[in-house]
Task: structure prediction
Amino acid sequence: METTYRHQVRWANDEYAVLDVSIEKIALYDNGRYIGMVDRIPEHLSRIEATVFRNGDIAFDRDVFLVGDRRDGFELISTSFQDGYAGSGSGWDQDMAVGRVYLRSQKVGLHGTAAFTTRVPIEAMPR
Result:
């Protein structure tokens, strides 16, 4: 997976900066082979607030994950930030948005709950 994003500094001081981050595109690969991309992602799935500290640490207000595989399809999941592994926090699904990835139309469509709850999620943004 390769994530393309842009960011804009909302404000900064001597200790940290607050950024608005927008995921613009997600390209998917299987064993190094390109399988498709999405570049039309709903705002609730693509907007993240990042705080970048002077020492280089970054804190996100949301976690965005890709879940699924080529055979069954993919979902993009956005949830409130949890300090730890995806799904490890007690309330990780409280503020969850789920979108189905449509590679042919290159878009993500919002829908109800996550279908791939037993799959390993891959973070869309590096930490």
